């Protein structure tokens, strides 16, 4: 009898976890992602799923994996942005994330020769205030982007960015200071 109860408890916990993940995906990635969902309904779905989104605009087509997301006020997340927030993702106020950008908190360690994708690992991402992430840019796990940065379209950010600098390239490197004199950084 005790074995049956233990089995039942384990199955019940798994079922509860499954239904929580499923309800999150329905609210965020079906209702919230849809192009026909009105903005007000999209925000109700996001908030019901536990996302912390202040007065901001998240356009249709965005995919959000996980619920560890904080978006401050006056932020624009454009169409088809992918946000993996298995670890904390913070987006500061007055920031613009252009279409088809990727913000990814998870990766894998290198595995053995028979399976190169090893154990999964996650690290938080923080995007400061007043930033602009260009179209198709990728922000990798563990990155902090300082206030007022511009990340050029198509760039891959794999290390921290100091404030008020334009970054471009693969990997993203500092190109130009955006504060004070407009001098090149080389």
UniProtKB/TrEMBL annotation:
Coiled-coil intervals, chain numbering: none
Keyword tRNA processing annotated: no
Keywords carried by this UniProt record: Acyltransferase, Transferase
GO cellular component term, pick one: cytosol
Top-level taxon of the source organism: Bacteria
UniProt KW Transferase keyword: yes
GO molecular function, one term: O-acyltransferase activity
Family membership: Belongs to the transferase hexapeptide repeat family.
Protein name as annotated: Acyltransferase
Annotated organism of origin: Alkalicoccobacillus porphyridii
């Amino acid at each position: 009898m005790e074995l049956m109860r233990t089995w039942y408890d384990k199955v019940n916990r798994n079922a509860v976890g499954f239904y929580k993940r499923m309800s999150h995906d329905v609210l965020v990635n079906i209702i919230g992602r849809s192009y026909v969902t009105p903005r007000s309904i999209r925000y109700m779905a996001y908030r019901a799923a536990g996302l912390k989104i202040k007065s901001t605009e998240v356009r249709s087509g965005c995919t959000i994996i996980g619920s560890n997301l904080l978006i401050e006020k006056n932020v624009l997340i454009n169409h088809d942005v992918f946000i993996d927030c298995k670890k904390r993702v913070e987006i500061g106020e007055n920031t613009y994330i252009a279409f088809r950008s990727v913000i990814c908190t998870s990766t894998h360690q290198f595995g053995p020769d028979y399976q190169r994708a090893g154990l999964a690992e996650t690290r938080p991402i923080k995007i400061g205030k007043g930033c602009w992430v260009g179209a198709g840019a990728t922000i990798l796990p563990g990155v902090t982007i300082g206030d007022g940065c511009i990340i050029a379209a198509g760039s891959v950010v794999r290390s921290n960015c100091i404030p008020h600098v334009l970054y471009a390239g693969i990997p993203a490197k500092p190109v130009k200071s955006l504060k004070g004199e407009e001098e090149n950084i080389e």
